[in-house]
Amino acid sequence: MKTMLSLQEIMKRKQFEKSEVVAGKQGIHRQVKWVHVVEITNIEKLLNGQELILSTGVSFGNNMEKFKSFVQQLINCQAAGLCIEKGAYIPSIPQEIINLANAQAFPLILFHQEVSFVDITQDIHSVLINQQYQMISQLESYSQTLNKKLLTITHEMQILHYLQEHLETQIIYENKSGERFFIPDVPIHERKKIVCSMNADLLKERYLRESVQVMDKQHGIIHILSHDRVLSEFDHLLLDRTITALAQHILRGLYVEEKRRLEESEWLRSWLEGGQSKESIRDFLGRNEAVFHKGGVVLLCKKKNQHAPALDKTYLTLLFRSIFEQQGFSVFFTEMKNTLTVILINRREEKGWKDRLSEGVANILGKQKDSKGNYSLRFAVGKYVLPLDQLSKSYQSSWEAMQIQEQLLKDEYFSFFEDLHIYRLISFMQKHHDLRDFVMEYLEPVIIYDQKHNGKLLETLKIYLSCNGSKKETASKLYIVRQTLYHRIQKLESLLGEDFMTSEKRLVIEFMVMVYEYLNTTNSYLDGDSKTFSF
């Protein structure tokens, strides 16, 4: 399917019977995209390339410098050629202009008789428009047939064979494993020669290369190589349609595979709860090509808040698998308690697993921002375990990390259990003891004072401790003047004792402030409201 005419074809049309190519005959095969009538001298900024220019020379015929400048501008713009009507303005083409056109292989066509520029433009434009219409019709027909074939096609090579039937060129498909498939088939001894020729400059206009992208991951590359013709715009468009169909076919296969994997979720849940033996786990990993591993970890993913958009689980699992497999993990999924539970089996050395996992999460978060640019997901990672029959420990610790993040670190979106040091200690102590009595022993006077006077002594105490006793920094963070801070500190000394900033007592008080916040948040988290408990 042609989308342009060559000058050689145009010269055979009726309007050009009394014309002659007086210079630049080497460029007679140039392609014409459109025809313009031009009677001004400053034309360079108005052209896009491959236009055939018609002119009487009225603006430059009696001025050699303007004539030469006009032709040079057309050459610079990569115009297809210049047609000049012989007449009062240009009785003949100067030799200097002929020499310039010959040097640049720029076709210069002279009409020996008066012609109708309107008839020429109408004739050529009607041909070009008709070609465009035919191209669109054939593309539509190609796309419809291809879409029908997608319903029954079982392998991507069938799509590529269909493309080759239309292009009648050499197609080379390079899959994600680096294997090359030649359509039509080529003897082995000739394949290397063809691959080497694809990079040759001489074949620049006869070679196309496009990658097949699915979920931001390259699944293959299509190479098109023509030995006997220049590849046209139609060839490019056919390739685009084929790549879209190929991506749809691959994506459909990925969805089918992902659904099969999700059916394994019951077995995975049992594994997470410690109900699978080493032999059963080994058999499962063997079936999924993950026998060789260096341990594993559980990652939880859920919406950051109830207002966040609903999660497309199938899309997320495809995205997770694509990203984390590139980071050296085998990936398995199940859904528990409205949370996507991801089992990551490390296939590389244990050292560096944390950095690779963090990079994968950052990549996912970058693709999952809401309309305001905020992250819509939370992630929590449990303990790294080896052997894998201990995966329940990672699962339990990931839930604890998620709970701590939701209760105390609401602005965070990603936490490793092993990095939540002080919060883990508080959580552990709360499970075995009622910490309220400990808190009251140290903070009761301050809490009661704030309740009675609607004061901010506890907030002041927390900031003062976090600033290591720096009054200037504390006042700045509280947005109060220094004198107000001095008054509050004096009150704290009267309630807690003048020695509350000594090392051991300060350490305990700072810890109890964190416990108090933890207990308040836990109470709100469990009760579903924002009220704090009263002692």
From TrEMBL:
Pfam families per the UniProt record, alphabetical: HTH_30, PucR
Purine catabolism PurC-like domain: residues covered: 9-127
InterPro entries: CdaR-like_regulators, PucR_C-HTH_dom, PucR_C-HTH_sf, PucR_dom
Domain of life assignment: Bacteria
Ranges for domain PucR C-terminal helix-turn-helix: 457-512
Membrane-spanning residues: none
Gene source species: Sutcliffiella horikoshii
Name this protein carries in UniProt: PucR family transcriptional regulator
